[in-house]
Design goal:
38% of the residues lie in helices and 14% in strands. The protein is an alpha/beta fold and 393 residues long. A hairpin with a 2-residue loop joins β6 (179-180) and β7. It starts with 23 loop residues before the first helix and ends in an 8-residue tail after the last helix. The structure holds pyridoxal-5'-phosphate. Pyridoxal-5'-phosphate binds at residues 73-75, 99-100, 102-103, 145, 171, 173-174, 195, 197, 207, 209.
């Protein structure tokens, strides 16, 4: 039997959206951005100037936090957040098992040990009860990832963590603008790390990152560490590094920030179209939104036991898909030595079945409908070949 009403080939659309189109926002804002870039070039000030100050202020305000510090990239933002939270040699950091590897690398760089907690199967986010079970006397911090732009809700355990003096860090590289009960990601923990890599929801024309916090003492420290550990030029009281957001990127980000909410609304419309048109297809599992949240939908990640076949059939119809992520950090070649034996079954299952559909501000609702129709049709074809009812994931 067929699982969905078949769509005739001539009804199938020919034009499919790209998976990602990082040039789209430039084309949409060309005049504004060109003006900002020219202003920086003519200013003669390219590092640590007025543009970075202005962007830091507006991004902090956007998130609803007191401070933002621009840094060189998202990985540095996580690293510096961990250092501010006091994480060092020999500490344990409880971390989302299901994430991009950068999250774990930042912990390892600090000489600390990642203690992964498996994902919750519906939202694919770190399981809050699992965090409590993973606590030990060596736990120095909890690093959660609002993956795909879905906020992590730790309200139920914040008191327990606070009583033990354990700070919560958000790796918010995928979640600019997401909200939970009206508060933005970036303010749900003690400090948050953002990436402004071009493909992120708020992206520069190169690398960039930022740390957001209400702890002004932490922000001040990060500002020093990111600039060679000097509070005053050439007076180095602490070891530091070079991790600065440059003026050009900051000027571009300030322009783009003014449009972020419109772009997020587009992403939400695409996600809503997918959710409506792909509901109730046996074997296809859609992301479940955490209650009270409005995600930023960096990615729309569905799951299917035969996702490789689905991806191939979609590719034949001109629909690009990607996998986020095919290999979890604990099985990555770089880390397997230390983590190959731990059991993270939900994370493993997600990585084996995930398939990301196109989403982004470059897409219209009609684009999303075409992708959803093609997906329905591919799954109907697969169901005709071999019924998919039992292919749960
Ligand atoms: C992109 C990303 C990072 C790293 O950001 P960069 O700017 O590339 O260094 C870290 N964590 C997560 C979850 C990411 O998606």
């Amino acid at each position: 039997m067929t699982i969905v009403a078949p769509v005739r080939a001539q009804e199938l659309p020919s034009r499919m959206p790209a998976f990602l189109d990082v040039g789209h926002t430039y084309r949409a804002l060309k005049t504004e951005i060109d003006t900002a870039v020219a202003r920086v070039l003519e200013s003669g000030s390219y590092v640590l100037g007025a543009e970075v100050d202005a962007f830091e202020r507006s991004f902090a305000a956007y998130c609803g936090a007191s401070d933002c510090v621009g840094v060189a990239n998202g990985l540095d933002a996580v690293r510096l957040s961990l250092r501010a939270a006091g994480v060092g040699e020999g500490d344990e950091v409880i971390v989302s098992a299901h994430t991009f590897i950068a999250t774990w690398l930042a912990i390892l760089d600090a000489g600390a040990r990642p203690v992964p907690v498996d994902a919750e199967p519906d939202t694919m986010l770190i399981d809050a009860d699992g965090i409590l079970r993973a606590l030990t006397p060596r736990t120095r911090a909890v690093l959660v990832v609002p993956l795909y732009g879905l906020p992590v809700d730790l309200a139920g355990i914040r008191d327990v963590l606070a009583a033990r003096g354990i700070p919560v860090i958000e790796d918010a590289a995928q979640a600019h603008g997401a909200t939970l009960r009206g508060r933005r990601v970036g303010t749900l923990g003690d400090i948050a790390a953002f990436s402004f890599y071009p493909g992120k929801n708020l992206g520069a024309f190169g690398d960039g990152g930022g740390v957001v916090t209400d702890r002004s003492d932490w922000a001040d420290a990060i500002r020093r560490w990111a600039n060679y550990g000097a509070a005053r030029k050439y007076h180095h009281e602490e070891t530091g590094t070079n991790s600065r957001l440059d003026e050009l990127q900051a000027a571009v980000l300030s322009v783009k920030l003014r449009h972020l909410d419109d772009w997020t609304a587009r992403r939400r419309a695409v996600a809503a179209t997918y959710a409506a048109m792909l509901a109730d297809i046996p074997g296809l599992r859609l992301p479940v939104v955490p209650p009270g949240s409005d995600p930023a939908w960096h990615l729309f990640v569905a799951r299917h036991a035969l996702r490789d076949e689905l991806a191939a059939r979609l590719a034949d119809r001109g629909v690009q898909t990607l996998l986020h992520y095919p290999v979890p950090p604990h099985r990555s070649g770089a880390l397997r030595g230390g983590f190959g034996n731990i059991s993270l079954p939900v994370t493993d299952a997600i990585c084996a079945t995930c398939i990301s559909l196109p989403i982004g501000p470059h897409m219209t609702t009609a684009d999303a409908e075409r992708v959803a129709l093609a997906t329905r049709e591919c799954l109907a074809d697969m169901d005709r070949v071999a019924p998919l009812r039992s292919a749960a994931c």
